[in-house]
Amino acid sequence: MALRELPSALRRLAIRDVRSTAVSLAGALRRYASGEAASVKEVSQDFQDLESQSSLASAPDSGVKVNGYDPIKRAAGRRRELPPSRYQYRSPRYYRGPLHPHQPPPTSDPASRQFVPGPFSHTRLEQTFQSTISSDLMTLGYAHRPPGTIDVPKSDRLRTWDDSSPYHKNRPKRGPRGPEGVLRLVEKDIHWRNIPKITGVTVHSMIKGAIDDSSHLHIAGMMLQAVTGVRPVVHRAKHSVSGFGIRQRMPISLTCTMRGNQAYEFVDKCINLVFPKIKDWEGVKGTTGDSSGNISWGFSREGAILFPEVEVNYDMYPPKLIPGFHVTVHTSATSDRHARLLLSAMGVPFYGKLVD
Question: Higher confidence at residue 179 or residue 28?
Answer without folding.
Answer: 179
